[in-house]
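Have a think about this chain, tokens included, and walk me through the fold.
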Amino acid sequence: MAKPLMARATAVWLVDNTTISFKQIADFVGMHELEIQGIADGDVAVGVKGFDPVANNQLTQDDIEAAQDSPLFKLKLKFNAAAVGEEKRRGPRYTPLSKRQDRPASILWLVKFHPELADSQISKLVGTTKPTIQAIRERTHWNIANIQPIDPVALGLCKQSELDTMVQKAAAKRANEGGTMDDEERRKLLSTEQSLGMEAEPRIPTAIEGLETFSLSGSDDDDKEDETGDILDADSFFNLPDNGDEDEQP
């Protein structure tokens, strides 16, 4: 059951101005019956000014009189149409003026790192229009040369949970389409928590890429002798003069 505004102050007013039982007041304001008794004894809520629930459109006088006449009558918060939550608005979300200048940077980040997101999803995340998204996708935006990609979560334009939800929807759609993805694309379609928890696939360093077909072990060619049938000796590569020649004097 919905509780009244300023419950403790409302309880103080009901104790001071009505003869409603402690149990009825406790049930209405969401407090314990002993707390209501403490208010009556002056031990609880000392110095709290009473809050009139009738004047503030939370109770009717008829309800109070009915509760005073019957200890079994339960007080209920008066229905207030203005307190009912507004229906969720569709379309792009509202972005404060102070953050609107950051939207192009966040759009570029989403387009770059999550190209699987549709324009409608990006529009809901950062509160922009489809023409702006299309201009950044095609790099025809008037300020594209000065835009740097920045995470919209870091800019405060959306929550991480909202971004993860959109990414998961994109992942489900891609899975239904049956498209193949490499490791980099697969990570983009996962939520941040899932992506950080995954083990990276082993990759061949760029410096030796393309040499993976070669083996470091010995081959049959290494065991072959030269055409003369003799094994080459290191000394045969050098023509060293005899020691006697070095000592000869002209």
About this structure: DSSP finds 13 helices and no strands in the chain. Residues 7-82 form one domain. Residues 85-89, 223-229 have pLDDT under 50 and may be disordered. The CA atoms of residues 102 and 146 lie 12 Å apart.
